[in-house]
Every structure is written in C-alpha cells, then in structure tokens.
Amino acid sequence: MLENKDYKVIGTRPIRHDGVDKVTGRALYGADFHAAGLLHGRVLRSPHAHAKIIAIDTSRAEALPGVKAVVTAKDLPDAGDKVADLGEGAVNLKHLCDNILASDKVLYKGHAVAAVAATNPHVAEEACTLIDVEYEVLPPVLEVRQAMEPDAPLLHEHLRTTSLGETAAEPSNVASHIQHKLGDPEKGFAAADIIIEREFVTGTVHQGYIEPHNATAHYNADGQLTIWCSTQGAFTVREQVAEILQYPVSKIKVVPMEIGGGFGGKISVYIKPVAAMLAKKTGKPVKVLMNRAGVFEGTGPTPASFIRVKMGATKEGQLTAAQGYLAFEAGAYPGSPVGPGAMCIFAPYSIENVIIDGYDVVVNKPKTAPYRAPGAPNVAFGSETVLDEIAEKLGIDPLEIRLLNGAKAGDRRADGPVHPRIGFIETVEAAKAHPHYTAPNGKKHHGRGVASGYWFNIGLESSVTINVNSDGTINLIEGSTDIGGTRASIAMQAAEVLGIPAESVNPSVVDTNSVGYTAVTGGSRTTYATGYAAYEAAQDVKQQMIARAAKLWEVDEANVQFADGEFSSINGKEEQISFRDLCARLGETGGPVVGSGTVNPGGAGGAYATHVVDVAVDEETGKVDILRYTAVQDAGRAIHPSYVEGQIQGGAVQGIGWALNEEYIYNAEGEMTNASFLDYRMPTCLDLPMIDAVIVEVPNPGHPYGVRGVGEVPIVPPMAAIANAIYDAIGVRMRELPMSPDRVLKALGKI
Amino acid sequence: MARKSHVQTTINGETVEFLCEPRQSLLEVLRDELHLTGAKEGCNNGNCGACSVILDGRLVNSCLVLGVETEGKSVETIEGLAAPDKLHPIQDAFLENAALQCGICTPGFIMSAKALLDQNPNPTEHEVRYWLAGNLCRCTGYDKIVRAVLDAAAAD
Fold it and tell me: Which domain holds residue A595?
C-alpha cells in the first residue's frame, strides 16, 4: 500500500493556496457574511449555575421597537426520549436541545435561555435585558469528587450510572463508568521493586480560538434552510441542526465560511439552530454572533479532572503494572472525553498488567467539548509525572526508561488494539540525540524536564472531486474546512499523483450540497483522510487520462504508462504527451474529465511525541518561565513540513498555557470570575521562546504516503514535561494544574 | 436609539463619509457600515488585538475607539496595505514563513507589525515579542510569526 519513492511535491513548502486572501483581509469568516435585510440575533444567558426555570416572560422584549422575534425552548420541537445518532455516537436528544436553549433547568452560568432577533445588534442586546426569567436557584455542584458524593445535589433526576453494561437503580451525577483491564495487575504490582501512587488535579480550560462562534441563517419560502457559519464540519452542523429542529437534511444547506480556530470546540452547535429558529420566525436572514464572555461561559471547555496513577517497576526500570483512576467532569450533560483518556494513559508503554477505571461525571459547568487530543493531556500529566518519579528514584535517565519500556508494533494497548508500526521509540531517540538534551543547565532554580504523549488519530469519511482544466491545472473540491493549511496539504497529495506542481491545483472548500459527505476537521484526520480521498480522486483522473491517451494513439490502455507527469506508450508505438498537453485535448477524446475519491479509511496511524523543556522558577513570585522548548513528533510523512511544524509549535504552546496559567476560576455560586482574555491568561509571544519542532518520519502503513495525523498529540506532553522541569529546578513535585505562581508558592511552603 | 452622526475621515488614503451611532465602535463602523471586514472581533474589549488598525500613525484596537472619534483623522486597515499587484513585504514574509494557520488573527498581527517596523525598522527578537504581546494567536505558538516579522524587517 505504502508508496516508497522520491517525491516531487510532498515534503516541499509551497505558499498555501488561501494565503493571499488571509494576509490581505479578504478571506471571509463567518462573522464577515452579509446579506440584504439582515437581522441581528443575541442570546440571553443564565446568571445562575444551577436553577429551575419557573417562568419566562418575553413580552417586554417583544414590545421594544426594532425587535422582530424572540425564541425560547418552547419553540424547539419536543425532543422526548429520542436518541440522536450523530455519526460519532448516540446522543440524548433532550440533552442536545436543552444545551441549545434550556427548557426546565439551567445547569451552568451562561446557559442559553432565550434569543432575540432585531434590526440592530444593540437593540437585540437591550431586548435580552427585557426578558423576565423567574428562577428557583439550586445549590451548584462544581467539582468532580464533590459531584460523585452520594448526597451531592443532582443535575438530572433521570440520570443513572451505566457501569460495565449495568444501569444503576438510583439517580446519580455519574453518567458512566468504564474499565479496561490487561493481564493481572495484582501480580504485576507484586513483582515490582518500586511502586509510586500519586493523585493529580487538572483545571477547566478553554480551547481559546480567537474567533467567537457565529451563524447566519435564512429560510426560503420553499422551506430551504441555508446556514453560513464557521465550523469544523459543515456536514455535522447539518446533522445536528436536522436533529434539533427535526428537519430533513435534504432541506438544509450549510455553507462553511473560513474558520478562526476550533481545536475541537467548533464541532458542537450552539447558536446555529438558534439562528435558524429566528430566521424561520422572521422570514429574514438572521446573524447571531457570540461575544467572548459567551464563548467562555457557554461553549465547550475541556474537562477538569481528578486522576490517580499507580505504576510499578523492577529496580532495572522495567514497568510491571499500571493502574489509572480517571474522574472527568463532563460539564452539564454526559459526554466527557474520559474514554479517549483511558485509551491514551499508558499507550506509550508496553506494560503487561494494566487496569484503568474511568468515570464520566456531570457538574454545573458548560457541557465540555473536544479540545485537541481530548482527555489525553489530563491523563499524561499524571502518568508521565509518576514515570519521572520512578526513573529518578531508580537513578535511571528519564529518556532511557522510556526507551526501555516504549511500545512497539505488536504490543497491545490496555483497551484492546494491537499497535501497528508506530514511531514512539524514534521520538525518544531523536530527543536524546538533540543538542538541547545535553546542553548545560546547571543554574540555580533552572530545571529540565521531559515527557511523552500519545494520540490515536482517526479516519472517518471524506470525499473529493477533481475537475480537470484545459490548461493542465485541476480544481479540487473538498468538504474539509481549512483550519491550518489543509487546502495545501490535500492539494499537494493530488499534485504528487498527477505529477503537477502544487500551484496547479485550485482547492475549494464547498457547501454540503456541492461535495460528498465529509466528516469534521478534527481527530487529526484531515490531511490523512481527505488527503487520502484526494489521492484516490487523482488516481481516478490518472486512469481516465490514460484511457484518453490510449484513444489518441489508438493503442490498448494497458500499453500506456504514466510517470513524472508524462504519458507514454509502451510495446510498439513511440508516443509521449505531458499531463498538461493531454488536458488541452480532452474535448476531442470524449469530453471533460472529472475524478472522484471517497474513503472511510481504517488505517489511521497513532502519533507519539516527546518533549524537552527548560524552565526557570522564580522562588520569590512563584512564576515559571519557559527558557527553551524542543518538541519531537512522529508525523508519519510531513506533506507540508512548515504546517506540520506549525501544528507542533501551536499544540506545545497551548499545552504550556494549560500547564502554567489557564483555568476557569469559579466563585462559590458557580460563576466563572475570569471570562475574558485579560483574566483567562493565554500565552502571548512575550511569554515564550522559539519552539524547536523536530519532525520524525515513521510512515503509517495505512496511508499511501505514510501520513499520520499531526494536530493533536503535541498538546499531550507539555504539562508533565514542565512539572518534571519544575521538580528539577526546585525539588518540588507539582500535581495540580495550572502550575500558576500561587500554586508554586504553596508547593514551596511560602504561602 | 440615538441620532446618527455624520463623520468624515480618511481610510487607506481615501476620504470616506459615514453615518454612525455615537455608541458604535470604529470596529463596528469598519465592519458593519463600510464592509471592511479585515479587522476582526475576537474579544471586543482590547485584549486580543484582532481588530488592530493604525489611527493617525498610532496602533489602536479599533474596538476601543468610537467611530465618531475618527472625524478628520486617518485610518490604515489591512485592506490598504497591499498594492494592486504587489503584497506588502510583511504580507510576503507571513506567507513565506507559514506564519498563519486559521488566519483570524493575521490582519491584526500584520497591522501591529507594520506599526512596529514604521518606527523601529530593525527590531530585536525581544522587541518584536514585546510589541506583539497585545495580539493573541492560538494556532501557531508565535514562532513563525516572530520569524516573519524579523524577516520582513531584514527585507526592507
């Protein structure tokens, strides 16, 4: 399957196709959409973290001049007990609808309660303040261990724990309990010379995309609904809106505008169905924009978690057993990424005896949404810190203990799958060989730490159509919204097949009526799966072009070969024509050539990363500075190395923010007290050094060019790497995130 | 609703007249009244820099300036940076360094970098990082952005 040859386009660094539009301000993002007669929508949000809705009176808002419509949950179709199948697992439809507009209860501060459409955004905002909502305030549940207590206030009267296939009789905040077991953990721990068991706490953090959520919707008189929006997946918006509004997918067209970051947070819909409801009620296009506070308070953070990790090893450093207890906050409705967390926690290592228990727990915070390798950073903070402690106690170099125990092809992950060819060992070897690892680092309060991480990556459905132009270029039609340069990385794979330059491909991301089904831009799948579809579509074009050349030369198709952009005849006639020249002769050989490729590949290759970081800790203030950072990652094959480096650098920096600063800070009433970019402190460029991204290439056998996903795994190692570096600097083990100045001072016993 | 005011200003070298409510920010005027949507709203309270423009030679967050305040002033936005057939060197440097991923923060970074290089054509890496600290990027980790600005400075 794997093509193994010298590539002409793959591995080069062309200017991205959408680049000029994006540096000139011409690229149109969701909020930039404009239509004649446009109305503006705004959402009213709950001031309480937990309350019953007794009554909603919208009459004063409706009377305000300029207000055209007000909607509440009453305007949504009755969800009943229906379970919606959204492709990525079944979702309780009532939970889905209640998160769009609360019906009987509000479950977090910021929960949407009503929405207004008006002639002017300021009027819509004013109208929201005129909606009278009567609440019966309930005590909030704000932390996972508190929520698991038997006497904790309940968020959902009907929620019962599903544990290993059994459903409990009594209601609980614990939605589910999962378990993975491999070998005999008890025996494994008995064989250990050293056992370390530690507890870890991680805070609630946000994806932090710079572009707030947005949607413009319009209903035509014939019932056709069009939604223009920023999303990671136009088709998943179509599916979710269809389920929530109980409206056929065939009557919904979703037009993906450019998207200003997502990181997993722009898969779930929030205001898109609301815009559609307002558009239906008014008959006008309605644009709904979220403000930044709404983004923090009303959209998917990633879960806070409580994690206990126990690992045992022989005195030579061989791991004999590992145990993980993972309790994840799902937010207001079930569905935390505890499952992926449980898949990833010990996946870098070959350990014969493992047991992992995971709990999905509801609390009075926004419903969590995926965030870059969802679940994996939380658990790696625990496991990679414990492994560092084992290595230290045994006097073994932290990279050596990873080489000794590192997972290889044929090893079994605790949750079942056997690893295909993976590149974990190669990342550790590259980190060890990097000059950073042996550079002097002996200053007082300076420290160095390492950590590794795993993310499995996904495949899913993608479709690509290629239209061949008479001048030797191709138009490539795709359904994957481009968050970070994927127009280029997809186009380059088609260009490689056809022997044309990347610049001869014109990629377009189109609406749901204009391309085959394509799953979300997420799961590190886009360059892998949509790239695979582009490869298949280009192969289809190549075969059709071979037939055209055969027709032109009056030879059998089997006697035409294609190499380096040239068709030539073999076995007799001496004929040759370039791809470009043949493109000019399509009319006379049968008409236009259109190629298509559709995939749902099962061969997504897992990705590993190993990071090395130097820190300086200020013992007076507790502030931690990043002095040097090296991030090594197996990309399988780097199609466009600049954008692979960009993913690695960006992921590492999000991890640095999560490690050192970022968290939702709640008061006792469950109100987030830092819902702005001033107080929710994401890294700025002044907080950082250059990030040295090192690409290792261990080709994935499940892709023709060996691509693995690259987007997610770089966020997994930073928290533990930094914690290990802080220990190296000041001799204190940090086990709570973020490792902000106050926590560092507390750990030092200074406050 | 307050009566709208008539404002005359210069935007990217052209005289522009518009009507706006006193409460409308320059960002709203640019985006909603003049359809210059290159400046982006990321936070609307001066913390992300996505709406950066240059007002009378000074870098500002256009979300923190009122539209009526621009009377008689000169505004430079991302739309005015490139010549019809040639990008500005900072724009070229961003493309060549792959200094953008999603691109939403890019116009703000480019305007901010322009304001820096206008007054300090040869900044150090630290000066670039200090100056650009008012612009948030969540995708790139800033590495390639800082390199692009240093490259643009070297190219001039």
Answer: 19-27+459-599
